[in-house]
Amino acid sequence: MSRQQAMRPGLARLFRLAAAALAAATAVACGGGDSADASVHQATARLDTLVPQWMARTGVPGVAVSVVHDGRTVYARGFGVRRVDDAAMVDAGTAFPLASVSKSLAATVMAARMSPGAGWSTPVQQLLPGFALAYPDAQDNARLTLGDLFSHRSGLPDHAGDQLEDLGYTREQVLARLRLVPLNPYGSYAYTNFGLTAAAEALARSLGTDWATLSEQALYQPLGMTHTSSRNADLQARSNRAWGHVQAD
Questions:
Q1: Is residue 249 part of a domain?
Q2: Which of 4, 59, 161, 230 supports an S-S bond with 174, CB 3.0-4.6 Å?
Q3: CB-based burial of residue 204 (10 Å sphere; 0-12 exposed, 13-18 middle, 19+ buried)?
Q4: Considering the domain boundaries, does residue 159 fall inside one?
Q5: Could you tell me the residue range of the domain that residue 189 belongs to?
Q6: Mind listing the pLDDT tens digit for each residue in 171-212?
Q7: How far is CA 191 from each of CA 79, 94, 125, 239, rounded to the nearest angstrom?
Q8: Residue 219: CB partners within 8 Å, gap ≥ 6?
Q9: C-alpha–C-alpha distance, residues 243 and 241, integer Å
């Protein structure tokens, strides 16, 4: 759930273009049998030309693309470099930060491991005693739910806590300091990474584990995602990993 490198505008545009192309490929392949497979092959063959064009247009230095059809990986290739000041190339096995894809993954893990005593309407403090935000009324903290945090409606300001992470604070240190952030109780919507982190950790601890381990048990291992992790240390330990970049003016 750590923010790591948030998706930059150029990369977001590239993903949208790739998604559109793959959606078109899927639509073409709605037939059956050999004709569908041939259509998918024709569509994926275009990626070798299209992806470099999109990269040049957006300024993205490196990207890995995979296409799965009927449960099989029919295309997997890397393009560009892992970082702009190094010649090491991206390949199909290059690790990238999950970034905000972690939101949908986290929601899936949460839904899979919830119980009558730990659901979207369960108060966070019931599962994570001591967690609090800067609400003027203690009752607001008592009624703050997992769903409130996953819906970005707790009142925390936009990206609260992210700068502390950039400065090297641990996840636990950031969560403890959220209570110092002024907010508008339940009166605004604002995108927050560490709000979701608090809810995720609350559920994990109620189950006697940590979030990274819960994610592995509930999602990554059952799906055979052997190279996916919610631990930043695992990403940093990978020699074949992509670096985050900021587009300079």
A1: no
A2: 161
A3: buried
A4: yes
A5: 102-220
A6: 999 999 999 999 988 888 999 999 999 999 999 999 999 999
A7: 31, 28, 21, 32
A8: 105, 108, 109, 112, 225
A9: 7
